[in-house]
Amino acid sequence: MALIDNITEQVIxxxxxxxxxxxxxxxxxxxxxxxxxxxxxxxxxxALLERxxxxxxxxxxxxxxxxxxxxxxxxxxxxxxxxxxGIDFEAHDGQPSKAFFLILAPSDQSSAHIEALSEIARxxxxxxxxxxxxxxxxxxxVVELIRD
Length: 148
Prior knowledge:
39% of the residues lie in helices and 18% in strands. It contains five helices and five strands; from the N terminus they run βααββββααα. The mean pLDDT is 94.
């Protein structure tokens, strides 16, 4: 799966308006639901919350990758949110998260789910990429950055 194939301006929010972990999950999930590709928004949210209860998906360097497997979706879905001010996502380094990549995948597509996680991890290793991403002012800039 090429992550860039799933990234459109419709699944990107710059800046996020929510300021809490659950609020961010809901805000990004609503972007995916609006595409018509989430069959059950409540089930998808519950899967995300359950995954977060097992350990935060807030990583380090301002990146969070909330993700879950759920039968509420038919294929791998990705939404991106940017919060330049930072949001407490209980990240491993104790710092606020600023770049959010929400991934949903069907329960039977573990390899595609892991591929998406890996692709995001590779992209976000670059400090220059992260600075540019977090400095993006609109969804179009984010799409262009990811496709470059």
